[in-house]
């Protein structure tokens, strides 16, 4: 399925190579330690999905301009900042097979680097008067923090409401992708209605993306994250929420006991996974994922067919068909 990302990278070859240069400039600093860390961050960057969504959303309405490049850099700066902070919060020493910043330079440095990246992003927009773009993306950062905190609060008492779960992932995962699409569209169209439409598209694609991630926890695919990982962290994902809500009270209490107290026990995790499979939690989550994916594609159908629209369709397809 990687070939759909390759197709899009081909379509955006010029934009992505210019972007790489601009992003390096955007993170330069006068502090040698910071420069070493930025160099490390740039070297281990991922597939750059979010900048690709920015560029495609922009090109749906025109030619990528300076404000499009700044929007893509802002998205990447904010995304990287949240990842660096997440690794500290989760006490995680590895990301994408590399050491995390906190593993190499300790928590204090990692928190400060995250703060630095956030401020660089905000200043990049402010210095150039990109206020609308800044508004969307600052909103996303606020939502991401809210989603994360809501998840922490709810997982303590295993509160099992599907609508709360969707609120968490809408904030935590989908908001950044939604804002990326809105910012890209705004940079070339200067039309709030079109930007809002693309924001809705990005939100739906982002929710489908997260549901796919949730399903990996129950699948055999080797993705560098062990099966049952979410269960071990007592993270309530849709397959599990659905299962708990379908069960009779007594079996539900037994399952909750296992999640709360035996979440590190391999046999118990296996038992939880089996319960989810038998109750239809996986089928249900897969259907929901497809529903969000289709809703995202439906929005794209409102625009004339073009290689750029096809590129966006490819990326949406990739989010739900990927194997890792």
What are the main properties of this structure?
single chain; 324 residues; mainly alpha; Farnesyl Diphosphate Synthase; two-stranded antiparallel ribbon; globular
Mean pLDDT: 86
- Low-confidence stretches at least 5 residues in length (pLDDT < 50)? none
Number of alpha- plus pi-helical segments: 15
Shape: globular
Rounded to an integer in angstroms, the radius of gyration calculated over CA atoms is 20 Å
Fold-level CATH name = Farnesyl Diphosphate Synthase
Helix content: over 70%
CATH superfamily: Farnesyl Diphosphate Synthase
Distance between the termini: 10 Å
Portion in strands: under 5%
Q: Which structural class is indicated by helix and strand composition?
A: mainly alpha
Main beta sheet: strand number and arrangement? Answer: 2 strands, antiparallel
Total strand count, please?
A: 2
CATH architecture: Orthogonal Bundle
Number of domains: 1
CATH class: Mainly Alpha
Run of helices and strands: HHHHHEEHHHHHHHHHH
Physical arrangement of strands within the biggest beta sheet: 1-2
């Amino acid at each position: 399925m990687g070939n759909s990302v390759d197709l899009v990278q081909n379509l955006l070859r010029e934009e992505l190579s210019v972007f790489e240069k601009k992003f390096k400039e955007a993170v330069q600093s006068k502090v040698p330690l910071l420069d070493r860390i930025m160099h490390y961050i740039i070297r281990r960057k991922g597939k750059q999905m979010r900048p690709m969504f920015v560029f495609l959303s922009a090109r749906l309405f025109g030619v990528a301009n300076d404000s499009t490049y700044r929007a893509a850099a802002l998205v990447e700066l904010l995304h990287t900042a949240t990842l660096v902070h997440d690794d500290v919060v989760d006490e995680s020493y590895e990301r994408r097979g590399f050491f995390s910043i906190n593993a190499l330079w300790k928590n204090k440095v990692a928190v400060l680097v995250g703060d630095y990246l956030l401020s660089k992003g905000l200043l990049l927009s402010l210095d150039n008067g990109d206020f609308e773009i800044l508004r969307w993306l600052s909103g996303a950062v606020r939502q991401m923090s809210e989603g994360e905190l809501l998840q922490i609060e709810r997982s303590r008492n295993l509160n099992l409401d599907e609508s709360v779960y969707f609120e968490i992932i809408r904030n935590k995962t989908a908001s950044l992708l939604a804002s990326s699409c809105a910012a890209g569209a705004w940079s070339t169209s200067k039309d709030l209605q079109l930007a809002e439409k693309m924001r809705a598209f990005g939100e739906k694609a982002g929710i489908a993306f997260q549901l796919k991630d949730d399903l990996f926890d129950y699948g055999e695919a080797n993705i560098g994250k062990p099966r049952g990982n979410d269960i071990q962290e007592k993270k309530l994902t849709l397959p599990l929420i659905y299962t708990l809500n379908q069960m009779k009270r007594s079996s539900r209490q037994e399952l909750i006991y296992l999640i709360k107290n035996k979440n590190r026990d391999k046999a118990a995790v296996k038992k939880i996974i089996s319960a989810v499979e038998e109750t239809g939690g996986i089928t249900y989550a897969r259907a929901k994922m497809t529903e969000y994916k289709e809703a995202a594609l439906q929005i794209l159908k409102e625009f004339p067919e073009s290689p750029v629209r096809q590129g966006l369709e490819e990326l949406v397809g990739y989010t739900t068909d990927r194997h890792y």
